[in-house]
Amino acid sequence: MTGRPSRRQLFGYAGAAAAGAAVTGGAVALSHNSGAVPTRTPLPRDLSPYGEHQPAIAATSPKHAELVALTLLPSTGKAALGRLMRLWTSDIVALGSGRPAPGDTAPELAVPGVALTVTVGFGAKVFTLPGLTRPRGFSDIPVMSHDRLQPGWTGGDLLILVGADDAVSVVHAVQRLVADAAPFAKPLWRQTGFWNATAPDGSPVTGRNLFNQVDGTGNPAPGTPEFDSTVWAPDGSTTLVVRRIKLNLQTWDELTRSEQERSVGRKLSDGAPLTGTAEHDELDLEKRDADGRLMIAENAHARLSHHSVNDGRRIFRKGLNYVHDTGATRESGLIFLSYQADLVSQFLPMLARLDAADALNEWTTTIGSAAFVIPAGFSEGGWLGRALVG
Ligand code: HEM
């Protein structure tokens, strides 16, 4: 570990035990150097931070999210990484139930009931540290022919992905986690995104990307055996791919609606396959129209990414829309996020197939790319990543 921990960090770490103990007790009042902190009680919408897996992955997409990739400082080895993970664990336990992180300098910003979650990942560099081994099925992502990667959105040794239904809570949690990481790692890139997984009446919906496509229909459903075998490695971990994909809304807008639909093979109105009538109808990849043409084209995105043309392999996508404004200029895109037990056998062949032939390539450009191992969850008294870096 570099430098000496700040007073706040020392205080924070000492406060972790109190924070952990308090979770089960419901209402909590932590002491703080600026005075008393309001009582916080987890509300039903807050997920338990404990469990076999990191909890956000199988949960409904949050409205707001921020990802931060960090670079390890040269002096951060296995033992220091373990210290950071214990610090982050105490932050996650507190913030996830709406309580201030240990030593929080803005405790009023920690509020319950916003479904705040934190997901943590390790990039490839972590597994080159003495004493660590890269898990099977994990690798960096090779550069694809259509990629135009920018260093400012690419790579990273550690990842934090914070989600909540309230943007202020996300910013606050990120601020705390990054501050606690300062002696060990420094931010490399940050990405902010948003997603609507809930209709105005509160019912769950699949959500739309900024091309107006219903995006996520083909996903395995959380809670099913298919989801479990797609996402979880035997040790409870998974892998996450982060791709920042610029969408050219201007040239996309020049297409007719039916051209837009043909590029994916699904309808814009409700996401139904061009061969079906309802969103969750199975794709019929053999069906032809009266002229004998395949209704879901050879180069349609939903065909090329379908499990039946990928040796039965699936992934679990959970993208976020983004906009990036520079003065009067706006860039729009998708922070493509995909979870899979084995990145090498599930994700890479699919990515290569899409890079070679996907109709969507004409209107999309990947400008950032990163991959992380997402360690298993932890139980009360345990800490995140212990099986890998403990
Ligand atoms: C350019 C950014 C992308 C956009 C706008 C996009 C959009 C879509 C849309 C609209 C669908 C159909 C609805 C659905 O099943 O969710 C879809 C399906 C899918 N996409 Fe993408 N996608 C993008 C990139 C990718 C990438 C990079 C991959 C993986 C390497 C991927 C993998 C999949 C998969 C597996 C399906 C489900 C196919 C099925 O089983 O029906 N997509 N995507």
Notes on the structure:
The protein has 390 residues and is an alpha+beta fold. It has two domains: 1-17 and 62-120 and 154-194, Alpha-Beta Plaits (2-Layer Sandwich); 212-377, 2-Layer Sandwich (Alpha-Beta Plaits). The protein has helices at 7-24, 78-95, 167-181, 225-231, 249-253, 257-264, 301-304, 343-357, 386-389; strands spanning 64-72, 117-122, 158-164, 185-194, 238-247, 316-317, 320-326, 329-340, 364-374. The strands form two sheets. Strands 5, 6, 7, 8 and 9 form a five-stranded antiparallel sheet that branches. A hairpin with a 2-residue loop joins strand 7 and strand 8. The chain is globular and about 70 Å long. The structure holds protoporphyrin IX containing FE. Protoporphyrin IX containing FE (HEM) binds at residues 209, 211, 213-218, 243, 245, 264, 266, 271, 283, 301-302, 305-307, 315, 317, 334, 336, 350-351, 354, 360, 364.
What can be said about this structure in brief?
The protein is of the alpha+beta class and 390 residues long. It is 24% helix and 19% strand.
Secondary structure elements and pairings:
Elements lengths: L6 H18 L39 E9 L5 H18 L21 E6 L35 E7 L2 H15 L3 E10 L30 H7 L6 E10 L1 H5 L3 H8 L36 H4 L11 E2 L2 E7 L2 E12 L2 H15 L6 E11 L11 H4 L1
Antiparallel strand pairs: 1-3, 1-4, 2-3, 5-8, 5-9, 6-8, 7-8
Distance between the termini: 15 Å
Mean pLDDT: 91
Rg from Cα:
22 Å
Low-confidence regions: 1-35
What summary fits the major beta sheet? 5 strands, antiparallel
Shape, please? globular
